[in-house]
Amino acid sequence: MARRLSIGKTIICLLAIIVISLVLDTKARMHRRYQFFKIAVKWPTSYCNTGHFSCQGPIVVNFTIHGLFPMYFPNTIVPPYDEDSGCTDITPMNEDDIDLDYLRSILDEMNMYWLDVVYDNWVRMNLALWRRQFWRHGKCFDYPDHPLYHFNIALDFIRRVNLLQILDDVLSSTIKCDGLGRNKAVRARARITPRNREGYLASYIAGNISRAGRKRVQIRCNEDAHKVLQLFEVVICFEPNGVAIPCAHGYIDCTENDMINFPLP
């Protein structure tokens, strides 16, 4: 009997050790530097035509920055620093200390590419947006004591990558019969442009952007006020060193086989 009790106590102790180890491991995994990051750009019309917002015109006819998001694999956003300070060893700058004077070197580009599209470039609302983005995501990114770095990484992407041009110009392959019963590959411009008529296959949009960057991107869809699916965001994934990597999930709120609009204002 004593031996059975001893064995039982041993099993209980082992189970307790396993549980404690799992808890500690979970906490350790929560307290760590980001593993990759995403840059998301949104299509303003698809933000403003949902019926949820009353955007002050004119609506920008170009992709604008939604945000830069530090991530954990496989696809988890790093929590805000104020909720879990283990994401960095550096004390971040307070978001309230970010003002127009601090941002003066990039202010024009911030107002152009990272604006609150609801308020038609109302600088005070833009500043509130930038502070909120830094509070949520920038404090767990590189050099959190210098928010300019966080903003400049996203700006550098949109400076270099003209998605409207890529969607219109990138070559796509199609199979056509040559008239002799033989099939051959034909290269043609994708010609994906904003329009208020029939949409595009979601995989056609995603595939052409991915082909241009040679890495799989992620597209996010939403519905307009009439419940019509439309392109909302394009997301590109990067290693911490800035090298593009394939995004794990190609589609959010739509599938590759859905027809989606790319609407004009």
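Second entry:
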Amino acid sequence: MHIISMLSVLFYFYLCQQCYSAGNDHNHANDGGEIHTTNIDWTSEDHMLLNDSFKSLSELKNLHHYLNTFGGDVCRGWNKEAKSQLLILVDSNTKHEFHRQIARVTWLRNFHGSHSKVRAVFFVGKPQSLKMTERLLVENRKYGDIVWTHIPETSNHHRSVKMVSGLDWVLNRCKHAKFILKIDDKSIVNMPAILKFIDKQQNSKNSIWGFKHSVLPMKTNTNYINYTCEHAYMMTNDVVKKLYFGALEKIPYMSDENQFLTGVVAANQGVDVIHDKHFKAVTLSSVLPDNSTAVEKCNYSRHHYIFLKPENKDEWSHIVSSFKICKSISTKNSIHHKSV
């Protein structure tokens, strides 16, 4: 049964590759299939997408087919009445299997699962080969936490449209998540701190939190926009729909996802972009001097939300374990002060 299932899925991907690859005959209006029901110039649309020649997502009339996703159903069984449901949408690459595995066994280890109020999904682009497709299928069969889209990873120009596909997935497959934390797979999340932050935001609406920057998005635009830094931002449930449909409007497309979604689109939709320094992705060595004491390092680690992946893979567990250790040190210090 497993072999048959695998073959059927691989055949599905073969068909998808045939439908979405540039240079092939994409007019399937009369083939009787359910996917293609109208006469569409697929060659033209594929060329616009694959060659980065589109100026706005509104130009891609058949964009919803490119936004289709396949993979794990991590939010199945989530109860909309449950408290503090957090979905972590990890922007990953098909080739980053090691990054995903390290995340699962370190900072996600005690917080991600069917009985948890936290769900995490690794969102990847379209596999570029049958071998990569097979590897993703094997990985997803084991963990069930990978979702991939038809948006290719061949160009940085596709970063924004890939995340629009992610928003589409959230709307259709994880709509009960109260908060959505979007990060990249180079980040480490301080789960105790971020969950504590969420507990204080239960009544928040129409909000995006992140470390804000300002930019002039276009040479002809004299107004600066605020947007969040690249590694992480969090939004309330109602913002997902606003960003998704706002991105599909007739507005200039920007390849920088943060400038486009949390900047231009959020501003157009009236979403509040809130600055919080704890969302800036950092390493301890970049914010603290080398001679910092263990207590000083703990005070910073305990409150900060996002850290960058260390170059040395052995440091992952050290950073993650410090969240718990620092919390313990803080608790002991608090007890000591009370007794004094």
